[in-house]
Write a structure and sequence with these properties.
The complex is a heterodimer of chains A (668) and B (317).
Chain A lengths: L1 H19 L32 E14 L6 H4 L5 E13 L4 E10 L4 E9 L3 E25 L2 E28 L2 E21 L3 E22 L3 E14 L4 E3 L2 E5 L5 E14 L2 E14 L16 E15 L4 E14 L5 E8 L3 E5 L5 E13 L4 E14 L6 E13 L5 E14 L24 E15 L2 E13 L6 E17 L4 E18 L8 E20 H4 L1 E20 L1 E4 L3 E15 L4 E16 L20 E15 L1
Antiparallel strand pairs in A: 1-2, 1-31, 2-3, 3-4, 4-5, 5-6, 6-7, 7-8, 8-9, 9-12, 10-11, 12-13, 13-14, 14-15, 15-18, 16-17, 18-19, 19-20, 20-21, 21-22, 22-23, 23-24, 24-25, 25-26, 26-27, 27-28, 27-29, 29-30, 30-31
Chain B lengths: L1 H19 L13 H14 L7 H8 L3 H4 L21 H5 L24 H11 L12 H4 L4 H4 L15 H6 L3 H6 L35 H6 L14 H5 L22 H4 L47
The chains are: A mainly beta (668), B mainly alpha (317).
Chain lengths: 668, 317
């Protein structure tokens, strides 16, 4: 009887709520709670489990790698063949006084690994420390007869086998302190980058070589945030410095043949804020910055200055407003502004190639840009089942010394979310983008005789249409299916020379399964095609040659996890991934000539078995297989083309294996 | 009298059984629409009829549920943390006042996650009640908020480890919706996100930012320069599309071409350079000359991002 009465009361309340209730979205924030009848001293949490002290796992791994190509180091974390060891950790600490700490480490000891530490008292202060080593491997077989030492590239008849890889060592420290309405924070990061990367010098013959890299970057950010009931503000100062330890490179018979990336620094001060007025929220930011480069220039005859006063002043601003006009209707908009003002001075420098127009001297050109944006959007919820969003974006870009002084983009877009069908969610998106601008005038910068029919694609008139459809189906609690299809077309309608059109379409399917309490799996497949065409003219008139570029990408993957075997002690898992990237270029000049093979494929298989020796200790055996193949028709041998010296064929084709034994210990 | 006793005992038995097999999907208030649910919960919230013993009251039924108990492994379930909900209204801080929910479990409570019928805005109002700090300053105008993504769509509270707070699992959460970027990671060249050495949040802020595409820094280029500081310059001889936008030539998520270029040299370069010299010359056979082999145009024009050499106007030095 009592239940029936309560149900009636509830429904009456619901009805009355619908008639007289607010049309605004509910706000369940704890700061808005009606706690008039709450007696909090009775909330003793007697049945709450105490989780004080240390929790987490710490593990040590021993692995054995068999690979004959350092490129596999990208997957395994290190390029070193044979045995290696590393440390993993995932620890937490909390105590009754409110202090908490977290430490995470992954593959510490390998060339790719990180450690992260957080410690503090929430609501008071927090200390963060990070360390990361990031190494990317390009090739271990680059062949070069140029030997580098202290700024000198010495040619020799002995060929060195060079490793092209880049290693970053990063360390960071941060501290934040504050309570309630204010918070002050500071963070410092330091990075040292070393290695060799593929580059080229003109002697005047082009010679590819391994460019040494040894540089340091330092970033510091500090700020103060203040917040109130319905407002917040943040004042931030950011400074970044780059120092290159590699100077100008010279050959014994040709000095200063290659200039290094110059030391630079950047500063930025920004003020941002948010203000909430009932159902409307306004947020904005103003940032002013400077990028400075006044490194010493290479001294040569015809260079009038010791160092350049390179300075770019930047100014960025944004103001955004969004308002929940009613429970169903939201309206919003934003304006943004971004300016880059190059204040570096202009000088005349002697060039090595004599230009028929400017002679031996050329003036440097400081480039300025200014960007203005305006957006407006609305969304309306028809019922629980349909929601429509639509908007208009406009972007105006102005640049100095460009082929086209001003370009503007107008985008009209709409999104529809449909939840009308049981367990099915549909999302549709469509957009139309039209780019136009001021008159296109071929610029003197790149060539005083640039073909007037050329339209650079980032400046050219363009019509872009794009569609996307997403389908999500959860027919049962253990199966989830996602499918997405995309199509986009770029039509550079006024372009006769240059990129004339591009089509980008594809799909992907994702499946997630939870077959029973112990067995779960996933599978996915996706493909993408990008087709572009461009036209060229080598007779300096109308188009006489064209190129069609057909990119194709496919990736497939599947995996499973099986827990609870052998009395809940054994867990098995596996992951497989296949990816194939292809790009075929067909050049048509009288006849159509395919350019050659340019593709790469990769199979990756991971299997593991985790056995719990006891409640705290576990042993894991893992196997990883990497099959990688790539080919590039441009990768030619060192002396194949007379006059050009390359680093050799840097293509990859390998099978690599890794077996890893891990021992982990769980605290508590 | 006797019948009432039997009925009461039966009901208690059914009630206890219902408690044991509790799951959000079998919510008894599923027949309500999202709007009706929201209205009912708003009324309940305004009335403020909280439980007598806080978490102890809730745990009387819910303590057998692993997911519920997992909250005590994290910060939200730690009563010694002064800002934690467990130090305040406990379970009801987020799930709203108990009201008559404990009488049969039929009265709705605020629920989160993909099965919740409560609109994302209302779900998020719970989180924003505490987490309304400068870190979320750009949230309200962000794409995620405008697309009605709920905080609980990405964050997991009833757990010791929220997957988005861990470098090794955050990419999986982002790519569960952003499937194009998931595929891009596996292309011939991409940032090392496939192996979780870099994450989506190294460049983007999922809570929104005042920059385009919710980037961490003011502009696209500033975000790229935060790691690729050597390209910041400014330098004497600049390459205009480079200083305007790195994305003019590169796709930061991945590409079928090396160096994450949208197209390869010489075709990419010839989309902008068509003069009366060698730039407009058709490269008919790849790999047979310096224009189509080795580094193609970059065999000579290696300083493609700009040069600081006094004689480097052609970006060769």
């Amino acid at each position: 009887m009592r239940f029936k009465f309560n149900l009636i009361t509830l429904s009456l309340l619901a009805i009355s709520g619908a008639v007289t209730g607010s049309a605004m979205a509910a706000d369940f924030g704890v700061n808005k709670a009606n706690t008039s009848t709450v007696k909090q001293d009775t909330f003793q949490c007697k049945h709450c489990p105490q989780v004080d002290g240390y929790t987490g796992t710490i593990g040590i791994n021993a692995a054995y790698i068999e690979s004959d190509d350092i490129h596999s180091g990208n997957a395994f974390g290190t390029d070193k063949d044979g045995a290696n060891a590393s440390l993993d950790a995932d620890l937490n600490y909390q105590n009754g006084a409110g202090y908490k700490a977290k430490f995470q480490a992954h593959q510490l000891g390998l060339d790719n690994g990180f450690a992260h530490l957080e410690a503090g008292k929430s609501g008071r202060y927090e200390l963060v420390a990070d360390y990361q080593q990031l190494t990317s491997y390009q090739s271990g077989d680059a062949r070069s007869q140029l030997w580098y030492k202290d700024g000198m590239l010495t040619p020799s008849e002995h060929t060195q086998i060079q490793e092209l890889s880049l290693q970053r060592n990063k360390a960071g420290l941060g501290l934040s302190y504050g309570r309630d309405f204010y918070q002050a924070y500071v963070r410092y990061d330091h990075e040292n980058k070393t290695g060799y990367q593929s580059s080229s010098i003109v002697t005047p013959r082009p010679v590819n070589f391994g460019l040494p890299v040894d540089a340091n970057s330092d970033n510091l950010t500090a700020g103060l945030s203040l917040s109130g009931d319905n407002w917040a503000t943040d004042l931030n100062y950011f400074v970044s410095q780059y120092k290159n330890d590699i100077g100008a490179l010279s050959l014994p018979y040709l000095y200063d043949v290659f200039a290094p990336a110059p030391d630079n620094e950047a500063h930025q001060i920004s003020l941002s804020g948010q203000y909430q007025l009932s159902r409307t929220v306004m947020s904005g930011r103003l940032a002013s910055g400077k990028m400075i480069q006044d490194d010493d220039l290479i001294q040569m005859s015809g260079n009038p200055i010791q160092n350049w006063d390179g300075e770019v002043e930047t100014l960025d601003g944004k103001l955004a407003v969004t308002s929940l006009v009613s429970n169903k209707f939201r309206l919003g908009g934003s304006i943004d502004y971004s300016k880059r003002d190059n204040k570096g001075s202009v000088w005349e420098f002697a060039q090595f190639e004599v230009n028929g127009i400017t002679g031996a001297f050329k003036q440097n050109v400081p480039l300025d840009t200014e960007r203005r944006g305006f957006k407006v959007h609305a969304s309306y919820r028809f019922s629980g089942d349909y929601r429509l969003q639509a908007g208009y974006d406009r972007k105006e870009m102005e640049r100095s010394h460009g082929d086209r002084e001003q370009t503007n983009d107008d985008v009209l877009w709409a999104k529809l979310n449909v939840r009308a069908l049981d367990d099915i969610k549909l999302k549709f998106k469509a957009s139309l983008d039209n780019r136009g601008g001021s008159e296109y005038q071929t610029s003197e910068l790149t060539s005083s005789e640039s073909n007037p029919l050329l339209r650079k694609y980032y400046l050219a008139d363009r019509k872009r249409t794009a569609f996307e459809a997403k389908f999500n189906h959860t027919p049962t609690s253990w199966l989830s299916l996602d499918m997405t299809a995309r199509y986009a077309k770029d039509d550079y309608d006024k372009t006769q020379l240059g990129l004339t059109g591009s089509e980008d379409y594809g799909y992907d399917i994702n499946l997630a399964l939870q077959l029973n309490e112990h067995l779960s799996g996933y599978a996915f497949a996706g493909q993408q095609w990008i087709e572009s065409n461009q036209a060229g003219s080598q007779s300096f008139s109308t188009p006489d040659w064209s190129a069609d570029i057909e990119d194709e990408f496919i990736n497939l993957g599947a995996g499973f996890t099986y827990t609870g075997l052998l009395e809940d002690k054994l867990t098995l898992g596996g992951d497989y991934l296949f990816a194939n990237s292809t790009s075929d270029t067909l050049v048509t000049y009288d006849v159509t000539t395919p350019q050659g093979d340019y593709y790469s494929f990769n199979h990756s298989l991971k299997l593991h078995a985790n056995y719990a020796l006891s409640e705290e200790m576990a042993l894991k055996l893992a196997y990883q297989y990497e099959r990688y193949y790539d080919t590039d028709y441009a990768q030619i041998d060192v002396d194949t083309v007379p006059g050009l010296t390359t680093l050799g064929d840097l293509n990859h084709n390998y099978n690599a294996h890794q077996v890893m034994l891990s021992f982990s210990y769980q605290l508590r | 009298m006797m019948n009432k006793c039997i009925i009461t005992k039966l009901l208690c038995g059914i009630f206890a059984f219902a408690c044991l097999s509790l799951s959000v999907q079998a919510a008894p208030w599923n027949q309500l629409t999202g709007e009706q649910l929201e209205q009912q919960l708003a009324e309940k919230f305004a009335q403020g009829k909280y439980s007598k013993k806080g978490a102890d009251s809730c745990l009387m039924c819910h303590k057998k549920n692993d997911k519920v108990m997992a909250i005590f492994d994290g910060v939200h379930g730690n009563p010694s943390q002064p800002d934690s909900p467990m130090a305040g209204l406990q379970c009801e801080a987020c799930h709203g006042p108990l009201g008559k929910h404990n009488k049969g479990g039929k009265e709705p409570m605020i629920a989160f996650g993909k099965e919740s019928k409560l609109p994302a805005q209302s779900q998020n109002s719970v989180c924003l009640g505490c987490h309304n700090d400068p870190k979320q300053m750009a949230w309200h105008s962000s794409s995620h908020n405008l697309d009605e993504v709920a905080c609980s769509d990405c964050h997991n509270i009833h757990t010791d480890k929220d997957p988005v707070m861990d470098q090794l699992t955050v990419n999986d959460t982002c790519t569960s919706c952003h499937t194009q970027q998931k595929s891009d990671m596996n292309k011939r060249s991409s940032h090392p996100m496939k192996w979780d050495r870099m994450t989506c949040i190294d460049c983007h802020n999922p809570h929104g930012s005042m920059s385009e595409s919710a980037l961490n820094h003011t502009t696209v280029n500033d975000t790229c320069y935060s790691c690729h500081t050597e390209k910041r310059g400014p330098v004497l001889w600049e390459h205009a599309p480079v200083t305007e936008n790195c994305a003019n030539c590169h796709n930061p998520h991945g590409s079928v071409n090396e160096a994450m270029l949208t197209h390869r040299a010489p075709q990419l370069c010839q989309q902008c350079h068509m003069d009366d010299g060698h730039a407009s010359r058709v490269v008919q056979q790849g790999g047979s000359d310096a224009f189509g082999g080795g580094k193609s145009c970059l065999n000579c024009h290696s300083q493609i991002h700009g040069s600081n050499h006094p004689a480097g106007s052609k970006l060769q030095r």
